[in-house]
Design brief:
By secondary structure, chain B is mainly alpha-helical. Helix content of chain B is 76%, strand content 0%. Chain B has a single domain, classed as MetI-like fold, CATH 1.10.3720.10. In chain B, helix 1 packs across helix 9 and helix 7 packs antiparallel against helix 9. Classes of the chains: A mainly alpha, B mainly alpha, C alpha/beta. At the A-B interface, helix 4, helix 7, helix 8 and helix 9 of A face helix 3, helix 4, helix 5, helix 7 and helix 8 of B. Chain C: InterPro entries: ABC_Gly_betaine_transp_sub-bd.
Chain lengths: 250, 235, 314
């Protein structure tokens, strides 16, 4: 079994696209595309909101509300949105399926980014904040130069958690006929081509692992050493426990 | 999205989900039951496995980093990929119904190992020293002192795991396994010519209710296991 | 503030990149049609397995010389395929002949004069130990009354009127005078299964209800999913009775089989089934794959049969 999966993965034919079969490169590109669009929108929405809520302490109900959204079954919301949205698009476009998918992915990505940005700012020691104000910094300056850098480790772990969920969930985009690496899983199942199915699963897992490593690398360089050293001796939250931060919020 | 796509009076209206449920009660309740055990059992399995592993990671400092790396790695594998990878790894048939509980147990375990280890780490060392001084052997100290104090952290992890499971189980419905996810499949199939909302909305409502109920159950268990927190709060 | 600017810039880049790669899959379709055949300007949509099945894309090419510009994976005769065809995302699709949405959307079914598609007569597959003379008599009486049009009408009730399959099944049995109570199947206890699409469910309901009227103890296990999942259950005896389609079950059991007429397929199926399973009478009712186009496409290229797709485009 392992041999035939490797055989499927190593066959250069499977990486190239033909009019009838979209190759691995193209599906990988589509998968990364869905993920990047969703993460970009989610970061634009959630990061500023989380920082401002954390800084002002007002509107923290928004964080709780975003977290309650986690209870929604993603597949169900996807199907509902497809049924509502796709009949409005005509012609050679997959927008009718792309838009619902992106909405679902953004909805998934917002809660961890929002609650971690919020918690990150909230967790900045009050002495540090007071010192910054005492030095004559304005509110926005405190947020941008003190609170944000201090909150970065938590913000990154929220982002990583969001990214992993989005990569995993982008697979089910294939259920509503879009491309992406999930295509191989669903098609392999339909064609009884199990090496293809398992090969697809291996690719998704590999994409998730590599992306997480890359962001971890960025995090290493982006986070000030003064901040990260403190987090290294602590048991700092990682992508898994990032979600637990919400518990401290309430 | 305009209003006309949501006909609120017809039987295909999103609000007709309740009468849809009444019409298909036995099937829907069957799926609800499947969904419930598929969400709960893996968390229980995960906890049973995570307790000794977490304890080991606390007790022997050198175990902690590799154990966290391995479980962290497992947690990054997307669910649908894991569903599909489990059968060949465990020698099951490709569409074995066991693949979902096994896959979810892997997630729950890898989440909870970290939670248990960190929860135990948060037990104040003075408390542990006091227990030792009172003559507790390591095992008794673990079960009767450290573990109870770590309960709030562990139950927080359990809540996250169980709510996540409810959503992930529905994904398995898209590869033909029985649970509430099938309602989405069904609603989608019946939406060929015009949208047919009731099964889809019913599925979402039941999933959310299930998640809320299971979350509440964990909360109640948490309260029962930590009576001292209420005592402190009442003071 | 530097970080914020960076994040914004990164996000903008990402949006552009993401937009390009996500749409890339759909932008390069038509245009290759000039000078080629009709089909070489069309996009075909259907289930993933149709792409590789012997009577799918390879069969269309071999039998008719039809080669489409592109294949888009949609679903198995479901909402995605119908929607994509209706809204012009694809030009031709693999649908099933009983599908009421063909009529509802004015789709045109292209004829298959060279019988590329295998016959797909409805046939109950039953475990030999449960195939008593009584159960055979009950089921074969149903088989004799099942017609393609009748099946289409049943599906219409389920799919468009959202009636419950079991109610539709009971109504049909009543209309056909097949709902009489009796003792033909007394003493038999069996489990009836079905795949997860409405037509198969209603057929299983019809079989199950008729058998229980005749005194059998019936357990229903409907909506089981795909054949890969239910066939092993049927073979191992955890299911006893299943509504099947002669062509698809034959192709599943013997991928190399090339027969296509109803009688040939039925005869080949009898041989291909394992010793513990038997096929009862096949019905006239068929639900076979068909190449379907929209009315506009059919008129534009004057299409009546699949062979017309291989003509040179004007």
């Amino acid at each position: 079994m392992i041999g035939s999966v490797l055989g499927w993965l190593l066959d250069p034919e499977h990486w190239r696209s033909t009019p009838f079969d979209t190759g691995i490169w193209a599906q990988l590109g589509a998968h990364v595309g869905f993920t990047l669009i969703a993460l970009a929108i989610a970061v634009l929405l959630a990061l500023p909101a989380g920082l401002v809520i954390g800084h002002t302490g007002r509107g923290s109900w928004l964080v709780s509300a975003a977290n309650a959204v986690r209870a929604l079954p993603t597949v169900g919301v996807l199907v509902l949105l497809v049924v509502v949205i796709s009949p409005h698009f005509y012609g050679r476009t997959n927008a009718g399926f792309l838009i619902p998918t992106e909405i679902v992915l953004v909805v998934l990505a917002v809660p961890p980014i929002l609650s971690n940005a919020y918690a990150g700012v909230q967790n900045v020691p009050p002495q540090v904040r007071d010192a910054a104000f005492g030095m004559g910094m304005t509110g926005p300056q405190v947020l941008g130069r003190v609170e944000l850098p201090n909150a970065l480790p938590l913000i990154f772990s929220g982002f990583r958690s969001a990214m992993l969920q989005v990569i995993a969930t982008a697979t089910i985009a294939s259920y509503v006929t879009l491309g992406g690496l999930g295509r191989f899983i669903y098609d392999g199942l339909a064609q009884k081509d199990y090496p293809q199915m398992i090969g697809g699963a291996v690719l998704v897992a590999a994409l998730a692992l590599i992306s997480d490593l890359l962001v971890a690398l960025v995090q290493r360089y982006a986070v000030s050493r003064g901040v990260s050293r403190r987090f290294r001796t602590d048991t700092g939250p990682d992508s898994r426990t990032a979600v637990l931060v919400e518990e401290d919020v309430r | 999205m305009s209003v006309d796509v949501l006909p609120l009076d017809a039987s295909s209206s999103p609000l007709a989900f309740w009468s849809y449920f009444l019409d298909h009660r036995s099937t829907d309740l069957g799926w609800l039951w499947d969904h419930t055990w598929l969400s709960v059992v893996p968390v229980v399995v995960g906890l049973v496995l995570a307790l000794p592993l977490g304890w080991l990671a606390r007790r022997h400092a050198w175990v902690y980093p590799p154990m966290m790396s391995v479980t962290g790695l497992l947690y990054t594998i997307p669910s649908i990929a894991l569903f599909v990878l489990i059968p060949p790894l465990f020698g099951l048939s490709v569409l074995s119904p066991l693949q979902v509980p096994i896959a979810l147990s892997v997630y729950s375990t890898s989440l909870l190992v970290r939670v248990v280890a960190d929860g135990l780490a948060a037990v104040p060392s003075e408390t542990v020293q006091a227990a030792t001084a009172l003559g507790y052997r390591p095992l008794a100290r673990f079960t009767r002192v450290e573990l109870p104090i770590a309960v709030p952290v562990i139950t927080a992890g359990l809540r996250v795991a169980i709510v996540a499971n409810v959503s992930i189980v529905a994904v398995a419905g898209t590869i033909g396994l029985d649970n509430l996810g099938r309602l989405f499949d069904q609603g989608f199939t019946l939406s060929v010519n015009e949208p047919y909302y009731p099964p889809i909305v019913l599925g979402i409502v039941l999933c959310v209710l299930l998640a809320l109920v299971l979350d509440a159950v964990v909360l109640v268990v948490d309260r029962l296991l930590t009576p001292w927190r209420r005592a402190v709060a009442a003071r | 503030m530097k970080t914020t600017t960076l994040i914004a810039a990164a996000a903008a880049t990402v949006l552009t990149l993401g937009g390009v790669s996500a749409c890339g899959s759909s932008s390069s379709d038509s245009g290759s049609g000039s000078g080629g055949t009709v089909a070489s300007g069309l996009i075909f949509g259907g289930p993933a397995e149709f792409k590789t099945r012997t009577d799918g894309i390879p069969g269309l090419q071999k039998t008719y010389g039809v080669k489409f510009a592109k294949y888009t994976v949609t679903d198995t005769g479901g909402p995605v395929t119908v929607g994509a065809l209706k809204r012009g995302q694809i030009d031709a699709a693999d649908l099933f002949t009983t599908d009421p949405s063909i009529e509802a959307n004015d789709f045109v079914v292209l004829e298959d004069p060279k019988s590329n598609f295998k016959a797909q007569n409805i046939v109950p597959i039953i475990n030999k130990t449960k195939a008593t003379d009584g159960t055979k008599q009950v089921l074969n009486a149903i088989q004799a009354k099942l017609t393609t049009d009748g099946l289409g009408a049943l599906l219409d009730k389920i799919q468009n009127d959202k009636e419950d399959p079991d109610a539709v099944a009971k109504e049909w049995l009543d209309d056909q005078d097949l709902d009489g109570a009796g003792t033909l199947a007394k003493g038999v206890s069996l489990t009836v299964g079905s795949a997860n699409f409405p037509e198969n469910v209603v057929l299983a309901d019809i079989y199950a209800d008729a058998l229980s009227n005749q005194g059998a103890t019936v357990t229903k296990k409907l909506n089981i999913g795909s054949r890969e999942k239910y066939y092993p259950a049927l073979k191992s005896g955890s299911l006893d009775l299943f509504p099947e389609y002669t062509g698809t079950i034959l192709a599943y059991l013997d991928a190399t089989s090339t027969v296509s007429t109803p009688d040939d397929v039925y005869a080949a199926l009898a041989k291909a089934l394992p010793a513990n399973l038997v096929a009862l009478d096949k019905a006239d009712a068929e639900d076979s794959d068909a190449v379907v186009v929209t009315k506009q496409t059919a008129e534009k290229y004057d299409l009546k049969s699949i062979a017309d797709l291989a003509r040179t485009a004007k």
